[in-house]
Write a structure and sequence with these properties.
A three-stranded antiparallel β-sheet has the order 2-1-3, with no helix packed on it. It has a domain of 35 residues. Strand 1 and strand 2 form a beta hairpin. The relative contact order is 0.18. The model has no long low-confidence stretch (mean pLDDT 77). It is 0% helix and 11% strand. The protein contains no helices and three strands. By secondary structure, the chain is largely without helices or strands. The chain starts with 40 loop residues before the first strand and ends with a strand.
Amino acid sequence: MPGGNGTGPLGGGPGTGRGMGRGGGRGRMGGNLPGSGPGGNCLCPKCKLSVPHQAGVPCYNVKCPKCGAEMVKE
């Protein structure tokens, strides 16, 4: 090891250790995916209207009351 401290050179590994991958996604509890949690808001991608999310009703099944577009989980 270069510094003698066991750390090795920066960027020398494959990035496969725990939490060190190239993902960077929002994870299981975020995003517009099933199981992303009961709280938060539904957002219209067209007019940007935000309404409170109702538990048990996916945002993609909710139509925007202003323009009629499919909402997404905020």
